[in-house]
Design a protein that fits this description.
alpha/beta; two-stranded parallel sheet; 5 helices; about 25% strand
Amino acid sequence: MSYAVMPFGNVSVLWRNRRMVRIELNRTYGRRDRMLEEELAAVLRGQQVPFRLQPDFEALPEFCARVLRECVQVGPGRIATYRELAERVGSPYAARAVGQALAANPFPLVVPCHRVIRSDMRLGGFTGGLHMKRRLLQIEGWRIASGNVVSRS
């Protein structure tokens, strides 16, 4: 276990056998990890980051793992809708199931579920709360008004 100090609060990473098992927002476990802070800060600057600890998707249900792997492909400064992600994983009518898979995302920030929004451009949900989702999208250059993603700054 280790944690990183971030502008929005501490982020803890629980890992086993050099694989991420879970990331917890606003938690402090283990020792402070400066390299983890650098990796997460790069994500917040909109950079693609090869994390030294990779998420362990193997323990997840197959559909959830497919959704999370596809979500990783939503690069910095980009957004996708739940429906688009459902189409990408081969289940075009499963937007709600995609939302549930993202709600259970054990790797927030590393698997950037904050970049997935509703088809009507509203934010949808986020494990760390809508205030954090809004802030993360704003850091990545999105303008948000009245709970809707309006445009790229």
